[in-house]
Amino acid sequence: MNQIYLVSISAMGGIGIFFGVLLAYSSKKFAVEKDERIEKIEEILPGANCGACGHPGCTSYSEAIVNQAESIQLCTVGGAKTATKIGDIMGVLIDESLITKVACVKCQGGFNCLDSFEYKGVEDCHTASLMYRGQKSCKYGCLGLKSCMKICPFNAITMNQFGVAQIDIDRCNGCELCIRECPKGIIEMVPNDKSVHVICKNKETAKTVKPKCKVGCIGCKLCERVCEQKAIEVKDNLAKINYNLCTGCNACVIKCPVKAINTKTE
Amino acid sequence: MLKDLLLIFIGAVLVNNFVLSRFLGVCPFLGVSKKVHVAFSMGIATTFVMTLSAAATWLIQTFILDPFGLGRFLQYVSFVLVIASLVQMIELFIKKTSKDLYHSLGIFLPLITTNCAILGLALLSVNKTYNLAQSLVFGLGAGIGFTLAIVIMAGIREEIDSADIPEGLKGAGITLLTAGILSIAFLGFSGLISM
Questions:
Q1: Pick the CATH number of A100-193 from 3.40.47.10, 3.30.70.20, 3.40.190.10, 3.30.230.10
Q2: Nearest to B96 among A4, A12, A32 (CB)
Q3: With an 8 Å Cβ cutoff, are A11 and B68 in contact?
C-alpha cells in the first residue's frame, strides 16, 4: 500500500518538475524583449481593469501607450497624478488643465420633493422608472432606490438623510459607472477642485417646479446677476455653472432662494 | 489502417462533433461566437492545442500512468497538469516565433487551458485505447469539428444580429435556441459511420 503512495507521488512530482523545468527553460529561451516602459506604466496604473480608458485592462492600455502612442490621459481612475507619472516615463508633458473629475448627483429632492404615488416594488431605479418614470413627481428627481449605490465598485455612494444618493468625493475614482447606471441621467462628472454646483437638473418653469419640490431650481436668474465672474448662465429654466470661470466665492450659494446651488460638502 | 484513421477523423468532425454531439467546450462555443473571424481564430487555437495535447497525454498515459498502474486515479490530475503546461509553452513559443499569430490568438490561447473539450478529448482517447497516430488524428478531427461548429454558429449569430427577435429571446435566449437547432442538425450525421 505504501508503495502506491510513493509511486504516485513520484510520478506526479516527476511530471510536475519536468514541465516546470521545461517551462522555466523555454521562458528564458523564448523570452521576448518587452519594452520595459510597459511594465513601469503598468505598475503606475491602478490595476482595477475597469475599462474606462477604452482598453480591456490596464496591461493593454500600457501597451497601447508605448506601442501605439495612445493618449496618456485616458485613465480616469488614476487621474492627473497617474497621467503625470506616465508622462515622466514617456517623456510627454501632460495638459496642465487636466483635473480629476468626480461624480455628482444633481438632485437634492428626496423628502423635499413630493411623490406622485407610493412605490412598493423591487428596490431598483430601473424597475421603478418603468412605471410613469418613477414615484417622484419631478421627472429629473433621484428615486433613491440605490441602483447607483449597488454598482459603485468603490463604495463611494451612500444615501443621505433626504433619501438621495450622495457621492463621497474622497472615494470616487471617476469611473463613470454610476452615470451609465442612473436611469434618470442625473449623475454628472464635475471637476474635483470646484465646490459649488447647481444640484438640480429640472428644466421646467418655476410654476411647475415650486409646488413639487422645495429645492428645485426655478430659473429665477438671481445667481446669474450676483455672480461677479459671469460664470453662471440660466438656460432652459436651469442654472449652469461654467467651471472655468467659477472662483468658488459662494455668492450664488448665499443668494439662491431655493438652495439649489450648493457646495458639495453639505 | 488508413481507413481506420479516416473513420476516426470523420467521426470526430461530424458524427460525434465535440460541441454539438458530445456537448463539450460549450462555454467558448457560446462565448466567442459573436464574430466569424474571432471564432475562427479560437477554433484554430483549439485545434492546435487539441492535437498537441492528444499526443502529450497519450505519452503520459502509455509511459507513466499505465506501467505503474496509476491510470485510475491520477489521470485527471496529470492530464490537467500536462495540458496547462503545454498551453503555456505553446504560448511562449508562438510569442517568440510569430507575433502576428500571437496577436490573432490573443487571450484565447490561455483560455483554452480550462476548456473541457481538451480534457474530454484526452480522457476519451484513453478510453478508446487509441494508439499514438489514432490519438493525433482524433485530436485533429475534434479540433476541426470544434472550429466548424463555432464558425457556423458565429455566422448564424452575425445574421441574427440584424434580425427582428422577440424582446424576451434577445441575447442568450436566441443563442441557446440556435445552438440547440444546430445540434439537432448535426444529429443527421449519426449513423454515417458506426463508432
A1: 3.30.70.20
A2: A32
A3: yes
- Residue B24 backbone phi and psi in degrees, to 5: -105, 150
* pLDDT tens digit sequence for A187-246: 988 887 788 889 999 988 888 888 888 889 998 888 988 888 888 988 888 998 888 888
At residue A106, φ and ψ (nearest 5 deg) are -90, 60
C-alpha cell at B118: 481538451
- Chain A residues near residue B92 by CB distance under 8 angstroms: 23, 26-27, 30
Three-state secondary-structure class, residue A69: coil
* Residue B3 DSSP SS3: helix
Which of A11, A26, A30 faces B74 most closely, judged by CB atoms? A11
User: One-letter amino acid identity for A136?
Assistant: K
Give the residue extent of every domain in chain A. Answer: 36-90, 100-193, 195-266
Is any Cβ of chain A less than 8 angstroms from the Cβ of B50?
A: no
Q: If one looks up domain A36-90 in CATH, what number appears?
A: 1.10.15.40
Q: What is the pTM of this model?
A: 0.55
The three-class DSSP label of residue A214 is coil
Overall fold of domain A195-266: Alpha-Beta Plaits (3.30.70)
Q: Where are the alpha helices (DSSP H) in chain A?
A: 2-29, 36-44, 58-68, 79-90, 125-130, 147-151, 177-181, 206-212, 222-226, 251-255
Mean pLDDT of chain A: 84
Residue B122 domain-assigned?
yes
Whether residue B95 and residue A30 make contact (CB cut-off 8 A), yes or no, is yes
A16 interaction partners in chain B (CB closer than 8 Å): 81
Q: Report the half-sphere exposure of A248 (CA within 13 A, side-chain side).
A: 8
Whether residue B11 lies inside any domain: the answer is no
Q: Which DSSP symbol is given to A166?
A: E
What total of structural domains would you count in chain B?
A: 1
The residue to which cell 454531439 is assigned: B21
Query: B151 in a domain, yes or no?
Result: yes
